[in-house]
Amino acid sequence: MSGRVGDLSIKQSETLEQFRKRIEEILPNLPAQHDHYLLRWLRARSFNIEKADAMLRKLGTNIETITLIYDCEGLGLKHLWKPALEAYGEMLTMFEDNYPEGLKKVFLINTPKLFPMAYNFVKHFLCEGTRRKIVVLGANWQEVLRKHIDPEQLPVVYGGSLTDPDGNPRCQTMINYGGTVPKTYYVQDSVKVQYGNSMTISRGSVFTLECDITTPSSLLRWQFASDGADIGFGVFRRTQEGGAQKVEDMLQVLPSERYNAHMVPEDSSLTCDEPGVYVLRFDNTYSILQSKRISYNMEVLLPDRQTQSPRS
Prior knowledge:
By secondary structure, the protein is α+β, with helices and mostly antiparallel strands. It contains seven helices and eleven strands. A four-stranded antiparallel beta sheet has the order 4-11-6-9, with no helix packed on it. A four-stranded antiparallel beta sheet has the order 5-10-7-8, with no helix packed on it. Helix 4 links the parallel strand 1 (66-71) and strand 2 (103-109). Helix 2 (35-44) crosses helix 3 (49-56). It is globular and about 80 Å long. The relative contact order is 0.12.
């Protein structure tokens, strides 16, 4: 059950009534007294009455702005799926529209080399005032965080002194994790991408696209979807000029693996540090019975078309 009005289990309904009785002395002073409002606090603490009560009683504290820390450790190309980035950008837009000037600062730490690429996908969702609040920190990020955040409110792992009751430096018990994503939120039937090309790949066959990159640090981007079943995909770079070259003799840039592009369209990219002929290889050699039809786009963005990320 979702824990919302009209979708409560028997236990959740009982918890709601217990919660209402527990806070009846402060209920008249709350912004609202209806079930919709009270259930927000219960859902936020997984229907734990004690924790929801403690959270609600802090409501009188006047908090005008918040400071966010984004730990980018582990950020990779697999995370740069355009529909997800666009959804994240829309969340930022909703935050700006509904909580004006609610953001004090955003600190980004452990940013990898591809961060400028990721930031370029979402920055157009942000107003100029919000962009100025984004700060990318360098190797001394713990020292900088302590200057802006009380060490007692900062987890040990980020340079502060806060820990879980069991000593965990990441304070994981303070995180309210979400539950199972409802199937109504699945995107395979809602993500619409306009493809300029299509191709049927016979069973046991491959299909390749070649792209001649002449400018170092160009961004090679691709989008593709398959009909009915998964498809293998990898990126390689030729190591010799002219004539045919077997894929096993090429330089592997992105390892070939199978993608469920029939369920969720694939959208990714890579920075081509070296010029040369890059080969996008769609692999159906593992399928002995079924041909695969793919729809795809491919484009190259030159370095001068990639704007810079914010800096500290």
